[in-house]
Automatic annotation (TrEMBL):
InterPro entries in the record: RNA_pol_sigma_54, RNA_pol_sigma_54_core-bd, RNA_pol_sigma_54_DNA-bd, RpoN_core-bd_sf
PROSITE patterns: SIGMA54_1, SIGMA54_2, SIGMA54_3
Function noted in UniProt: Sigma factors are initiation factors that promote the attachment of RNA polymerase to specific initiation sites and are then released.
RNA polymerase sigma factor 54 core-binding domain span: 76-257
Name of this chain's protein: RNA polymerase sigma-54 factor
GO biological process: DNA-templated transcription initiation
GO MF: DNA binding; DNA-binding transcription activator activity; nucleotidyltransferase activity; sigma factor activity
Amino acid sequence: MKSRNRISIQQTQRLKLTMGLATSIRILRSDAQGLSRYLEEQAAENPQLVLTRASGQDWLPRWKSALGAGAEPPEQAAAGASLVSHVFGMIAGLDLSPREARIADALADALEPSGWLGQSPTAIAARIGVGLADVELMLRRLQARAEPTGLFARNLAECLRLQAEDADEMDAIMAAVLDRLDLVARGEIDRLARETGVSPDAVRLRIGRLRGYDPKPGAGFEPYAAPIREPDLVAEKGASGWTVAINRSALPSVSLAEGKGPGRAEARAILRMVEGRNVTLLAVGQEILVRQVAALEEGMGALVPMTMADVAVSVGLHESTVSRVVAGTAVDTPRGTWWLRALFTQATQEGGPAAGALRDRLAQLIAAEDPRAPLSDAALAVALSGTGAPLARRTVAKYRTMLKLPTAARRKRRSPDG
């Protein structure tokens, strides 16, 4: 049989990802840090693209509450269960006598969610009936062993001093800056330089190093906390209610160079994409936080059910666009820096509470339990069922695993008497 070649006409549809579309998607899904790196790379190759960084004092949003606390431990609820588990695991790894372990446990019990001590060593010594010198000795031992560095600090200045020493960046100028954080908070660099007898540039250099430190090292253990970095959005409550804004200090300003030259069209296209990304991010962020105002007011335990489809319909975008925008995006709030994606949570059942809210309440129940008689998963299921949605024990176990919390047997701690 003789084969023959045949010519046929066929019509097909295929999506072609052009270079411009690929760049637009990359910019849309980039967080502030990733977008800054991309823009720096583009500006290095294209002289028509000009980047400028804001000069002067531009502390990260996460520093506002810490600096405003006046170097005193903030008043917060009990430390989250993840932080408690981490600290007591660290203490269990130390070779301590029963008396030393009792002091270490008392110091751990006094931790706030920020990672700072919520009680003075004097008060702790009086509460457990030991000498102040013994408490301070154990405190120094825990501070030296703690990871991340800064846990067990008594105030903001000590927290930062511990991190500066750990980074081998502690010198006389850094010490002077840490002694006058009130001037740093007000941006009075020249006055600080005069009072310490150094140049303003030397002061700015130390403040730049402080920007890389974590003012609240315990906050990273919260279930919804984003890593320490510059957040993409800032949510603040003013006289007229909550406002959401792009964190401009996290991104360089982008503009076109004067005159004409090759690459101008490409630079102009990047400008449009960055502006579009910022507009879309702000619209999505505002819609998410308007729906989750209760969480801003009361904490993650007040999360309400919300899906990406709900937000997409409200802002007139495709669900995939919303997914790209919130990927890796963080918002700074008075309650900490949160992942936007973590605010999406479905109801456990129709008309019931959000799964995310139940997970937060689970963490709070474990944080508040008696460490000598921790709650079993079955007991936790009964307690959480009182919120309006009956929960099975296996669901509680799944949530506990998601929060990286150990079983009741592993959470049980020694008695005060050793």
